[in-house]
Amino acid sequence: MDKTARAPHPQRQISILVALVVAIATPATMALSYYKLTGDPTFRPLALTVERLIAGGVDVDYEHVRAVVHTGDTAEDRARAQRLGEGVQVAFYGKGIDALVQYEIVAGRAPPTVTYHVARRSFGPYSGAAAAQGVRAAVEALRLNKAAAQAGREHSW
Questions:
Q1: Domain range for residue 29?
Q2: Is residue 3 part of a domain?
Q3: pTM of the model
Q4: Which sign, positive or negative, has the C-alpha torsion 147, 134, 109, 79?
Q5: Cα(98)–Cα(89) distance, integer angstroms
Q6: Sequential pLDDT tens for the chain (157 residues)
């Protein structure tokens, strides 16, 4: 006798499908609800990330430094700018600070320089040799900015 395999019950397949849809949709629905209640753009599902908001110049409640490396349009200048940007990012990482490094191409041949942006302040441009001075200035500005924000908050007493 030949035994044929039974097809699974369609009702069971539908319940599994419904469970999968609920499991996938719940986090996005919760995030969208939180966004609608508070207006916090970091919780908007499928929206801009915090890094993208920082790059756009939106002031978010997040410790960050934006470093813009200006470089010439030759391949050699771009390679030097890439090394400078990586060094800047490592320097900030060593101090426990997130740094967003962006590159801006300047027409012609030019040695790379870096400008640091913290909140509404900018420092630079610094040459590759003086970039460490700018890192120190940006870190201090970030700490002062954070201290000023904490000093302005209301106390609970």
A1: 10-41
A2: no
A3: 0.59
A4: negative
A5: 8
A6: 555 666 667 778 888 888 988 888 888 888 888 878 887 766 766 655 666 666 666 665 556 788 999 999 888 999 999 999 999 999 988 888 888 899 999 888 888 999 999 877 888 899 989 999 999 999 998 888 777 666 555 555 5
